Amino acid sequence: MKTKGAAKTNAPGRKKASNTRKAPVTKTAKSRIGDSHIQREDEPWAITIPDHEPRTSSPAYRVARKVMNNVVKEIKDFFLGAKAPYQDHHGGGLWVKDQDGWLLIKNLAGMEWSQQFCADPAKVDRLRQFAQRMYKAFPDSLPAFKQLGFADVENVLNEEITSAALVSRWLDSIFNASVPLTQARHTGVVKPTSKGGTPHLEGGVHHYPTPITDIQLFKRDDFQLWVLDDEKKPAAVVPVGERGSGNSALRVAYATPGTKLHQKLVEAQSKNQYLRVGTNHPMAKQAFAAQNAADAKKKAIR
Length: 302
Hints:
- This protein has nine helices and eleven strands.
- The chain is an alpha+beta fold.
- The chain is elongated, with a radius of gyration of 23 Å.
- It starts with 28 loop residues before the first strand and ends with a helix.
């Protein structure tokens, strides 16, 4: 169960956990409580997680990561991030090859490693069947996978998924663990300074909703998606009018949970409305700062 702020825990023979101590920005802090541990970040959440064996990379995952990186090396100016290194996101990507090279197509669903334990093999097999149909349309793909080191590609693609072991093999294969993302776009957390962020600031798909993280891929470079709210917490905003329209109002697309802005956002959404901030709002000034500076420079040149 998610809770706001750092979790307070009382256990026999142990001191009460501090409510003010913060974990380092890029690390996760843990404290053991009986047969569980408390996991925290500077983000406003804390989760009690039963202990389990440490995860190790499966043979299928090691092959998938190698093949994925080799595929991206053959692509010029890769849209999801032109510079390596990449982390291998379990996003349900299907790499296919035609006469012009490699394409990345998304399956109907992606599956994270931790999600396999609730997975129905029959439903996962429907994802395999979807992939099977896709690869029939791109016959150059499987031979190319073999050349890159995925020797049993046909077995994984064609064998019906009927057991937990086959679910595990599928989810760690190139047919699911296959989306190359930089660390910022995969597991990154938005950490703007008190003076505001910069246009290249990004957050990862494991911390923020996909509709928000997708905006990072196609927004104008001089529009600041991530801004700071009145509590100096990250928020994501989008314009309500096209560039040059003279409309500098914004729609709040994301607010940090636990903030006043988040409360307002939830209230607006419950009424099937969107939360709007005006031209003179500090978040609007942050979002359009680079665009306004560029427009001012153009006027000065004229």
